[in-house]
Design a protein that fits this description.
The structure is a homodimer.
Chain A (H helix, E strand, L loop, with lengths): L9 E3 L2 E3 L6 E5 L7 H13 L4 E5 L3 H13 L4 E4 L4 H9 L4 E3 L8 H13 L4 E6 L13 H18 L5 E6 L3 H12 L7 E2 L7 H17 L5 E3 L6 H14 L8 E4 L10 H12 L7 E5 L5 H5 L4 E5 L3 E6 L2 E7 L3 H11 L1
Parallel strand pairs in A: 3-4, 3-10, 4-5, 5-6, 6-7, 7-8, 9-10, 11-12, 12-13
Antiparallel strand pairs in A: 1-2, 13-14, 14-15
Helix pairs in contact in A: 1-2, 2-3, 3-4, 5-6, 6-7, 7-8, 9-11
């Protein structure tokens, strides 16, 4: 079965990433970082739905300074996403961030890299090296596959940090292409002890991006690879967090609210199950406990299928059989299906 | 990299499943099978969006007879889903179906099984053995895991068919639990030469069901397992087909319409990219050719990220840079972003 890769645990604020820690869910703000109020509002919304680490882009010094005001108003650890300019990294650390995402190889002068690493070490702030298939160094052997090139690029950045005796490292290797991403992570997983941040980059708008992200992240998690995940969608970041938890729940790696089992319906179904499932889904979204609920469309297969659920209903024509932990506890009229089910869920 | 399991090819109507055939996309009707007009209407909608095999439940003799009327009006192969009653199987074959889903072990008398198998053999109709974690025989060793029990159940059904010298077999082993499903398929993949129909059963309503299905199906496909897929959702079956193709496209296993690469946006984005991506997505849904389109939110990373795309746009403040096959071909005003992009897509 699934066996998790052994990785070095690091701390990002009060969240442990790697080792035996739960696989952390993270997202990124989509507001202008300099707009502290909007950014804080978005982060609070994300905290509300279970986001555990948040990252913000730092395009300029004003944004790096703004991180300080943001940090004071939020509960979850804040990571600064920085490209090229080491001064932004120094200011972000000064502003109190809990982590950096920064590729040291993109900072041209060694003493500037050393200055950032020294500040990060002093504040015990980890650095994520984030390699992206779309922006690889030009001097890597062109005969290598994209996945291999990504690993080479990451190893260069890692070496720069290790040479400065810094090991609070996290690594990501993202591509849009799923097989490329999986190959890259599989390769680096055996080469370094650091925790891995996994995800598919620029995966697209909500629907296709959700599917592509799940298709890329799931095989890695199944192989035991991945210590924190970010789903990247062209959508509200709340969608990213919800999707991340659904992925983790699907692989039994995290519990987070309810799990809904429901049948696809077929020519045997004698009730408007799809509408009913929609209503149950909406009402379950507000249920904050780990509970497995089954809504099945026939009394023939329903009971057997629903027996693993905490609360289940198998719906026939006009009547449904209610189950609690696989035991039949009553018969319900069609008009009461959802209300009775939800009452059982609330009382569970 | 991904290497496909070698499986025996079978034919369901004019669709080959297994061997080197493309992984076929299938769905199931949710109408009352006896209502021929509604069922045909739904199948035509599914044909339209690329469904390659359709299955209908056969709860009674009227439904088995109705299959004949359905079959005459549709283009894709029709599979009859039958439980327990061998007479329904005989009538479905009589009605001209292209395949059966039937677990022979659930038909109690051997001569009835023999009658079905003889009719299927005479018409060269394959039989899918469909084991479901929720309805396993009670007499299987309780010390086995659910995945192992599913394999034992499937092997019993397979033996019944093989003993009658029948090998037009396809097998599925579905559970709601993703790791259980993966373990079961991995196990049987090494035990039998038959093509495998893969999927997650009762995976739930659209969003969570899509994620759970992708999480279960992707690792299997990545291991080379799976010759046809069905996504089971409590939703319009069109959603099942669309999701199946998105999964296959994510793993580069099928081409089907456009692929949209788009960035999640961040504090660096200076354009309302999410709305723009939505519009591009809607307009791309009508584009029938395999094309990769990238919509990126910044001129710094955009070009690099979009270079693998056929057509791409990297959007800065007020202006965007248009790319064709990684070459810059023009600069576009913000108000024209979508129209110009779509014109390029159409002309590609």
């Amino acid at each position: 079965m699934m066996q998790r890769r052994v990785s070095k645990a690091i701390r990002i604020g009060d969240v442990t990433v790697g080792g035996n820690a739960p696989i952390a869910v993270q997202s990124m703000t989509k507001t202008d970082t300099r707009d502290v109020a909007s950014t804080v509002r978005q982060i609070k919304e994300l905290e509300e739905c279970g986001c555990e680490i948040i990252r913000s882009a730092v395009p300029d010094m004003e944004a790096a300074i703004a991180l300080s005001g943001i940090k004071k108003q939020i509960k979850i650890p804040l990571v600064a996403d920085i490209h090229f300019d080491y001064r932004l990294a120094l200011q972000a650390i000064e502003s109190g961030v809990d982590g950096l995402r920064l590729n040291p190889g993109n900072i041209s002068e060694p003493d500037k890299v050393a200055a950032v690493v020294s500040a990060a070490k002093g504040s015990e702030i980890p650095i994520r090296i984030g390699v992206n298939a779309g922006s690889l160094p030009q001097d890597i052997d062109p005969k290598l596959t994209t996945a291999q090139k990504m690993v080479v690029a990451a190893m260069r950045h890692i070496k720069l940090l290790e040479d400065l005796d810094f090991d609070l490292i996290k690594v990501s290797l993202k591509a849009f292409d799923v097989p490329t991403t999986i190959e890259a992570y599989k390769d680096i997983a055996g080469k370094v002890p650091y925790p891995l941040h996994i995800g598919i980059t620029e995966s697209g708008p909500a629907k296709s991006g959700i599917i592509r992200s799940a298709c890329g992240i799931s095989p890695l998690l199944y192989m035991g690879i991945g210590d924190t995940i970010r789903v990247s969608l062209s959508a509200n970041p709340v969608e990213e967090v919800v999707t991340a938890y659904e992925i983790l729940k699907s692989l039994d790696l995290r519990h987070h609210g309810a799990v809904l089992v429901s049948c696809p319906t077929c020519g045997r179904t004698e009730v408007n199950l799809i509408e009913m499932v929609k209503e149950v889904e909406e009402r379950l979204a507000k249920v904050d406990k780990p509970i497995k609920v089954a809504v099945m469309g026939c009394v023939v297969n329903g009971p057997g299928e629903a027996k693993d659920a905490d609360i289940g209903i198998a719906c026939g024509k006009g009547k449904g059989v209610l189950f609690r932990k696989g035991e039949k506890i009553g018969v319900v009229d069609e008009k009461d299906f959802v209300d009775v089910l939800m009452r059982e869920v609330e009382g569970f």
